[in-house]
Amino acid sequence: MTDTEHGDGPSDLDGMSIDRAVDIVDDDERNSSEVRETLAIVARDGTVRREAVDDALANASMVVTTAETRVELAAEKLDDARETADPVSDMALVSARTDDFEARLDRIEDRADDLGNAVQEVLAMKDEGDLYEIARRIKRVTNAASEVQRIADDFQLEIEAFGEWLADADRRAEELAGDVEALAESVNELDAIAETLAVGDEGPEGEAANRWAAAMVRHRVASLMIADLRAELAALRTWAERESERSPSDIEPRLDEVQASHEAVGERLVARAEPEWTARFDDRLTALDAELEAMEPPVAWAAVEAVVADHQPAVE
């Protein structure tokens, strides 16, 4: 329990040793080492002090300010990238990416705004509030600010990479080729799974049926990936024509190979399925198909993940 729950007042911890304060605050629901670490935020020389709150808040405010600055820098980089993208913003391949960046920036900025609000809440309680609760909130906002800074820094790197992608046709082609190879590896993994499914070999607790259902979900998602990659290839060709650049020439044959392998794996998965498997998972797979077929390139893969999570077959 906290000091306030002892019936004395929120100032009871002021002037108390950390060891004694831990005994008062700690209970069965809290980890004593975490309580000690938290109280140390508002302590000096091993003693909990209300006067230490100002220094702790100052440190937290510095971390928050750094995070806010990194978010502002990310917004500036996105403005620059948006300006670079403007001549080709009519292409869905480009506009989808800029729209996604803008939506993500909005979410990051909201989190940065929450940091400032959290600091103001602690300021309002620093003179009379419960010292453990103050320390806990300072720790929480400091950790949250560090996380926002990390996300903003990673976001800046992504935007920089996007700017390089916009400016370099060879890089665009290389990244697309890399995506095709990643899909090829995924199809090969599905092929290996299909080979392990022996008709009549159900295994413990329907293990084979569960593997089959999971493979069918992956196969359906791979179908959408193929459509998305073909649409991106077509867009890159249009882009190359506009800029009188060399059009990617070696990607389509490789993508054809991957699609042929994908279709063959699908046939094997269907052939290996027991009637009980299809009966058991048909409704879920049909619902998943309907959702995925409604998606058009450029595909929002976060939305695909959500659809898969909602509709993938439940396995025992």
Automatic annotation (TrEMBL):
<keyword id="KW-0175">Coiled coil</keyword>
<protein>
    <submittedName>
        <fullName>Halo transducer protein</fullName>
    </submittedName>
</protein>
<feature type="coiled-coil region">
    <location>
        <begin position="64"/>
        <end position="125"/>
    </location>
</feature>
